[in-house]
Design a protein that fits this description.
Elements (H helix, E strand, L loop, with lengths): L36 H12 L3 E6 L2 H6 L11 E4 L4 H17 L10 E7 L1 H5 L2 H9 L5 E6 L39 H6 L5 E5 L4 H13 L6 E6 L3 H4 L6 H10 L6 E4 L2 E4 L10 H4 L10 H22 L10
Parallel strand pairs: 1-2, 1-3, 3-4, 4-6, 5-6
Antiparallel strand pairs: 5-7, 7-8
Helix pairs in contact: 1-7, 3-5
Length: 325
């Protein structure tokens, strides 16, 4: 690759109308009304196609889409434990290689392996397994759907829970004021493994999201890829089910969840924001932040400002602007 050349070429999917009409993730699942996970999974397998194997860690998507004897997946699907989706996906990918080497599968058949996990199964108890998969350079795309707590088991906090958010294990009262730790920056932890492709994505920006899925699959001949998708949770975040995409969009418009990619070491913000909305616009729609005082909201705004400054530094210019007055 020559100097100054961008690894990622032109948009592969210029419009959602360009997506295949085949439905490989079908309706009838048990996800909560207003849950954005269904949208994420539907778009994911549309991009990946039929020759795909999904390895799904225990979590909301797993329990809600494969209630025995039914399944919403029309591609091969494998349930792993909470903590080992990375290792399971590695085993599947290597098994495909062996079968192709022995002639049991055509050598030119491209079978994609995608690991899917929530934040608990990725940033906490699955982090060791994920790190091992990345170190081995196994040809797996890992998709994290991040609803920022262990929503499947009762809304307990995880390493992805944001500062001051209420959960059942970080309650809001006179002593505790919600989560007192800041959110773990999992995308940058993954990027430290120097894999070919890392990106953040948001279902409120579906064209950006599906193109990142496409790019993540494209690099698998070189090594693993990782896509961190924000997933608004109506139950745990405590908002009106109609507001899932609105809140997701505000996460990016306020700078809480910037959209970027790191393609072969090159950092690029994929959705610049000239003037950010104040973080209170994002917080006020969610019951998990209803306890916050003006001083605590200002503290969160300061943390977001610091994060935006870091993103701009990585980008080498101001691509996410100041808060609009």
């Amino acid at each position: 690759m020559s100097a100054g050349q961008t690894p990622r070429g032109p948009l592969r999917i210029r419009s959602l109308f360009d997506l295949p009409r085949d439905e490989l993730f079908i309706s009838g699942h048990g996800l909560c009304a207003g849950c954005t996970a269904g949208t994420i999974m539907r778009m994911l397998v549309k991009v990946a196609g039929k020759d795909t194997i999904i390895v799904n860690a225990t979590g909301c998507v797993e329990v809600s889409t494969t209630r025995y004897p039914y399944s919403n997946w029309l591609v091969p699907w494998f349930h792993s434990a909470f903590e080992n989706a990375g290792a399971t996906a590695s085993g599947v990918a290597r098994a495909i290689e062996v079968l192709q080497r022995k002639g049991a599968l055509p050598k030119d058949r491209k079978i994609r392996v995608i690991a899917v996990g929530g934040d608990g199964g990725t940033v906490d108890i699955g982090l060791q397994s994920l790190s091992g998969m990345l170190e081995r350079r196994d040809p797996v795309m890992y998709v994290l759907y991040d609803n920022e707590a262990y929503m499947n088991t009762g809304i307990q906090r995880s390493g992805a829970t944001p500062y001051h958010a209420w959960t059942t294990t970080t309650p809001a009262g006179k002593v505790w004021r919600g989560e007192w730790r800041t959110k773990k920056d999992i995308a940058m932890i993954v990027a430290a493994h120097k894999i070919p492709y890392v990106a953040t994505a948001n279902p409120a920006y579906p064209q950006d999201m599906v193109n990142k899925f496409a790019r993540g699959l494209e690099v698998l001949d070189e090594g693993p890829s990782f896509i961190h998708v924000i997933m608004a949770c109506t139950t745990g975040w405590r908002f009106d089910p109609a507001l899932g995409i609105t809140i997701s969009r505000l996460a990016t418009e306020t700078g809480v969840f910037p959209l970027y990619e790191i393609d072969h070491g090159q950092f690029r913000v994929t959705f610049p924001v000239a003037k950010r909305k104040p973080v209170i616009e994002y917080l006020k729609l969610q019951g998990r932040f209803a306890h916050l005082t003006p001083a605590e909201i200002e503290e969160i705004q300061r943390l977001v400002d610091e994060r935006v400054a870091e993103i701009n530094r990585l980008a080498g210019k101001e691509v996410i602007g100041p808060v609009a007055k």
